[in-house]
Amino acid sequence: MRGTILVIGGLMWLAGCGGGSDKDANGSAAGDAPSGEEAAGEAAAPAVEKADLDCGKFKPQTAPEGQAADDIVGLRQGMSEEQVRGVLLCKNPSYAINVSKSSTSLPDGGQMSRINLYADTGLDKVNVWLIGPPDGERLVHVDRTNEYPAGKELPVANIAQEVSAKYGAFDDSSYGNQRSGWIIRSRDGQRMANGNMSYSECRSHNIRTDKVLPCLHAISYEVMPNQQNPALAARFSVGLTSFAMMTQMAMATQAQQAKAVERAQESADEKDLDL
Predict the structure, then answer these.
(1) Beta partners for 247?
(2) Are 49 and 17 within 8 A, CB to CB?
(3) What is the spatial distance between Cα 254 and Cα 242, in angstroms, rounded to a whole number?
(4) Which class for 191: exposed (0-12), middle (13-18), buried (19 or more C-beta within 10 A)?
(5) Would you say the C-alpha torsion 89, 93, 94, 99 has a positive or negative sign?
(6) SS3 52
(7) Rounded-to-integer distance, Cα 125 and Cα 59, Å
(8) Cβ neighbours of residue 138 under 8 Å, at least 6 residues apart?
(9) In terms of Cα–Cα distance, which of 198, 201, 212 is closest to 246?
């Protein structure tokens, strides 16, 4: 069954669309009570219909070969809002997506557009920030939080091993027991030691528009242990902020605004003020 995406009050719902006969492929009338086998099949059906998307168009993105990983669930710096939505819904159509729009300051004055996109299945939450010129916003931050139901918790050690396998060894763990860590990379992609003079400034997940930071991106993870068994994770979060993309988007916005001033100036030169 194909589905249709409906946006109501900023919340994305997925609704099925029917068609044709009142009987299914097996000849059962739509109103007939299902057999035991059919009922079992219905119980196993997904709660949300798959989105009517061309998932060949919305492919998860990863860093070029030879470069350090810089994506979370295939969401990578520079992606558009449409790409983010497509990748998430093709990954899991159960995501409920909410979007809010605002603005954020530019380094030299003025404003650039900001989009906050929040996707949530109830257990899997993805938060994305996009900034840039209007209709040209691009992803600069993504974080994901997984909450584990009772009896399905993952070992803390396994989570630490998996994030390190993807992103590299994390440093500056505040607990010293594999529950958190950071990776900071300089503008040329190299790891910055935690003794680097710029490390603390780059060790954040904030939109910085007051200055150009000397770092490429910051990655962090944190595990919230189960209260009854601290070796198991009750919740796990990983986040990535691209400071280089923030700078690129600020420059793109400023360039767009400069062009708007040029066009206004040309228009003003063609006519006098009616004073």
Answers:
(1) none
(2) no
(3) 19
(4) middle
(5) positive
(6) coil
(7) 19
(8) 77, 78, 79, 80, 130, 131, 132, 245, 248, 249
(9) 212
Q: What is the pLDDT of residue 3?
A: 38
Tell me the two tokens of residue 48: 């949300």
The residues near 86 (Cβ < 8 Å, ≥ 6 apart) are 53, 55, 57, 58
Task: Say what the pLDDT of residue 109 is.
Answer: 81
Q: Which one-letter amino acid corresponds to residue 40?
A: A
Report d(CA 89, CA 120) in Å as an integer: 11
**What is the distance between the alpha carbons of residues 104 and 89, in angstroms, rounded to a whole number?**
27
pLDDT (tens, 9 = 90+) of the chain, 275 residues, equals 333 333 333 333 333 333 443 434 333 333 444 444 444 444 444 556 565 788 999 999 999 999 999 999 999 999 999 999 999 999 999 999 999 999 998 878 889 999 999 999 999 999 999 999 999 999 999 999 999 999 999 999 999 999 999 999 998 655 556 689 999 999 999 999 989 999 999 999 999 888 899 999 999 999 999 999 999 999 999 999 999 999 999 999 999 988 988 888 877 766 766 67
Q: Cα(97)–Cα(180) distance, rounded to whole angstroms?
A: 28
SS3 222: strand
The distance from CA 112 to its chain's CA centroid, rounded to whole angstroms, is 19
- Encode 63-125 in three state secondary structure: CCCCCCCCEECCEECCCCHHHHHHHHHHHCCCCEEEEEEEEEECCCCCEEEEEEEEEECCCEE
Q: Tokens 């097996």 belong to which residue?
A: 26
